[in-house]
Design goal:
Blueprint lengths: L1 E7 L3 H12 L1 H8 L2 E8 L5 E3 L6 H6 L14 H11 L1 H5 L3 E5 L11 H10 L3 E4 L2 H18 L3 E2 L11 H7 L5 E7 L2 H11 L4 H10 L8 H4 L2 H14 L10 E2 L4 H12 L2 E12 L2 E12 L12 E7 L4 E6 L4 H18 L2 H5 L7
Parallel strand pairs: 1-2, 1-4, 4-5, 5-6, 8-10
Antiparallel strand pairs: 2-3, 7-9, 7-11, 9-10, 11-12
The structure holds NADP nicotinamide-adenine-dinucleotide phosphate.
NADP nicotinamide-adenine-dinucleotide phosphate binds next to helix 1 and helix 14.
Length: 360
C-alpha cells in the first residue's frame, strides 16, 4: 500500500517524522507492506506545497527552518487541507490518504487544528495528530465524524509521545473501565523542578528545554500548566468519556517559588511534582493540574528530569502505571509512525480494495 501523506505543520516533529519514514523505509515495506509519499505540506508562514507525484520531503526537512516550503498560500490553512484532500481524492477513496496534523497547540480553542482535521475527514482522509488541541477541545465531534466517514483518527503522540497510552487502553484492556488517572505528563516542568532541586536556576533549565525543542515555543504553555491541562482534558475525553476542554481543568503551574518549595520538600524526604489528575466525583468528572507534595515512595515522586508517568485507575485491574524514562522528538515522531502503521494494519481489506475494485 502506498500511503499519500499531507503534512499540516512542518516543524520539529514533522521533520523528524519525515526522517523516520526514510530511516525505516525498508522495515515499513518488509514488515507492514507500506510505502509512503508526502504529497502535501502546509505551514502558516512558510508557504504550502502540493505535488501528486510526491514532494522531496526529506530535502525540505533538511533545509533551515526559515526557508519557504512552497508558494505563499492565499487563504486560511483549512482551505489548503480541503484543496489537498480534494486533489488526492483517488487516494482518499481507496483509504490510503493520511493527513498528519502537527501544528502549534492553540490553547484558546484548539483551532485551526480542529478545522484541519474536520476538513481532512470530510475529504475522506485518515488523520494522525500529535497536537493536543483537537482532542482536548473537540474529541467527541471529531471521533463521530471519523466513524461516520469510516476513517481513523489517531492521536497517540498527544500524551507521553510514542509511549502507548491510548493504544494501551483501546487495544489491550477489553471490558476494563478506566475510572480515573493521575500522572506527571509535562516533561519541561518536571525537568525544571528536578534541575532546581540540584541548584540550577529556573530560567536556565527552561532555556535548555527550549533549545532541545521539547518545551513549547510559547513557554507559558508548559510553565503555567496549560500543556498538562490540555493533556488532562484529552485523557479525560478519551478514557473517561468526558466532554471537557483545557479550560475546565482546575490549573496551577510552576514558578520560581514552586522550585524553592521543591528544594524544601526534597530536604524533608518528599518531592514536589506537577500532578495531573481526573476522576469521577458523583455525576461529574473533575480534573486538576497542580504542584503536589508526594511521599518519596510514590511512583510519581521518583520521576527525574524529563521522565513522565501515568497511573490509570481501573475497575478490574486496579492501578496500571506506564512510565516514560526519557522524552525526545524521535519519540513524538514515532507516535505518528505507529499511528500510521495502525491505520495500515487496521484498514479493512474491503475498504483498501476500494469501491473501484483496486487491490492494494
Ligand atoms: N516538540 C515536541 O517534543 C512535542 C511533543 C509532543 C507533542 N508535540 C506537539 O506537536 C505539535 C508540533 O510541535 P513542533 O515542536 O513540531 O512545533 P513547531 O516546531 O513550532 O512547528 C509547528 C509547525 O506548525 C505550523 N503551524 C502553526 N500554526 C499553523 C497554522 N495555523 N496553520 C498551518 N500551520 C501552522 C508552523 O508553521 P510556521 O513555521 O510557518 O509558523 C510550523 O511548521 C504541537 O502541537 C506540539 O504541542 C510536540
Amino acid at each position: 500500500v502506498t500511503f499519500d501523506l499531507v503534512l499540516v505543520g512542518f516543524g520539529h516533529v514533522t521533520r523528524r517524522f519525515v526522517g523516520l519514514l526514510a530511516e525505516y523505509r525498508s522495515d515499513l515495506l518488509r514488515q507492514h507492506g507500506i510505502t509512503t509519499r508526502v504529497v502535501g505540506i502546509g505551514t502558516r508562514r512558510h508557504g504550502c506545497a502540493y505535488a501528486a507525484e510526491g514532494l522531496d520531503a526529506e530535502g525540505l526537512a533538511g533545509n533551515q527552518r526559515d526557508r519557504p516550503i512552497g508558494e505563499p498560500f492565499d487563504g486560511p490553512t483549512i482551505d489548503f487541507v480541503t484543496q489537498s484532500v480534494r486533489k488526492a481524492a483517488a487516494a482518499a477513496h481507496e483509504g490510503r490518504l493520511v493527513v498528519v496534523e502537527a501544528t502549534t497547540l492553540d490553547i484558546g480553542r484548539g483551532e485551526p487544528a480542529t478545522g484541519h482535521i474536520r476538513a481532512a475527514i470530510e475529504g475522506g482522509a485518515h488523520v494522525v495528530t500529535c497536537n493536543k488541541g483537537p482532542v482536548a477541545f473537540a474529541y467527541r465531534q471529531l471521533a463521530i465524524a471519523a466513524e461516520r466517514a469510516g476513517r481513523r483518527l489517531l492521536f497517540e503522540g498527544t500524551v507521553m509521545d510514542g509511549v502507548p497510552i491510548f493504544n494501551l487502553a483501546r487495544e489491550t484492556l477489553p471490558a476494563v473501565t478506566v475510572v480515573g488517572f493521575r500522572g506527571v505528563v509535562n516533561s519541561t516542568t518536571n525537568y525544571i523542578l528536578t534541575a532546581m532541586e540540584q541548584g540550577q536556576p529556573f530560567a536556565e533549565a527552561l532555556a535548555e528545554m527550549q533549545a532541545m525543542g521539547v518545551a513549547e515555543a510559547n513557554a507559558s504553555l508548559d510553565i503555567d500548566g496549560w500543556d498538562a491541562a490540555a493533556k488532562t482534558a484529552a485523557l479525560a475525553n478519551v478514557l473517561l468519556g468526558a466532554s471537557m476542554t483545557p479550560h475546565d481543568v482546575e490549573r496551577r503551574g510552576i514558578t520560581e517559588e514552586t522550585g524553592r518549595r521543591a528544594v524544601e520538600a526534597r530536604a524533608a524526604g518528599r518531592r514536589l511534582k506537577l500532578v495531573a489528575r481526573a476522576g469521577r466525583e458523583g455525576s461529574v468528572i473533575a480534573a486538576r493540574v497542580a504542584p503536589e507534595e508526594l511521599p518519596e515512595e510514590d511512583l510519581l515522586a521518583g520521576l527525574e528530569g524529563r521522565q513522565n508517568a501515568l497511573i490509570l485507575h481501573t475497575d478490574l485491574l486496579d492501578e496500571i502505571a506506564v512510565v516514560q524514562r526519557s522524552a525526545s522528538l524521535t519519540q513524538t515522531a514515532y507516535a505518528l509512525l505507529s499511528d500510521l502503521i495502525t491505520i495500515a494494519r487496521d484498514t479493512p481489506q474491503s475498504l483498501r480494495q476500494g469501491q473501484q475494485g483496486h487491490t492494494l
